[in-house]
Amino acid sequence: MDNQQVRDESPDDADAIDGVLSRAFGSTAEAHLVRSLRHAGHIRFALVATVERSVVGHIAMSPLRIVAPDGESAALALAPLAVDPPHQRRGIGAALVRATLDRARTLGESLVFVLGDPAYYGRFGFTAKLARPFECAYACDAFQALSLGGESVPSSGRIIYSPPFDELPTDDGPTR
User: Fold this and answer.
1) Are 176 and 30 within 8 A, CB to CB?
2) Is the separation of the CB atoms in 43 and 37 below 8 Å?
3) What CA–CA distances, in Å, run from 93 to 1, 53, 117, 124?
4) Hey, which end of the chain has fewer CB within 10 Å, N or C?
């Protein structure tokens, strides 16, 4: 798409991000989640997609803890991903996911979890099979994981999301 750019979010983007999240999900829950994560320092990094300098997409990565009998390890939660409805189905979401996974690899992260459409996230390598051995409040067929490689990729354990996720309804789990 012409004049499309993916970049780090900036503090000046907060209101535009709230709008994108609210319109994409049809509620303010995800906007509240992102603001809470940001305020608590629980966003590892977040990116926006812009078209003609207007924010039209957003993606956030927050830290997860994996607790296993042999100790704790870290992972990331990809949540939420949103594209403003008039700009959906133009590759913006895919560009955000690819850029986010590239950034996570560059930062040395080894494992990413997402709750979302298996057909959509499957094209990036996410699988429910990899996520199944992990205990999680949001475990279901849409709960998926992607190994980014690295020296120590845990194979099981109990996943603990950042505290702002506790404010979301548990029947829907964390946002996509």
Assistant:
1) no
2) yes
3) 12, 17, 13, 12
4) N
What pLDDT, in 10s, does the model give residues 16-57? 999 999 999 999 999 999 999 999 999 999 999 999 999 999
Region 115-128: mean pLDDT is 96
Judge whether 176 and 21 are in contact, CB under 8 Å: no
* Angle, helices 29-39/14-25, rounded to nearest 10 degrees: 150
Half-sphere exposure of 119 (CA within 13 A, CB side): 0
Entry pTM: 0.91
Is the CB of residue 49 less than 8 Å from the CB of residue 21?
Answer: no
Tokens (6 digits) for 155: 């194979």
